Amino acid sequence: MLLKAILYIIFTFVSIWALDSVNINNVFKKNKYYASRVLYLMISVSLSYLVVNFMYDFLGYANIF
Question: CB under 8 Å, gap of 24 or more: what pairs does 49-57 form?
Answer without folding.
Answer: 49/8, 51/11, 51/15, 52/4, 52/7, 52/8, 52/11, 55/7, 55/11, 56/3, 56/4, 56/7
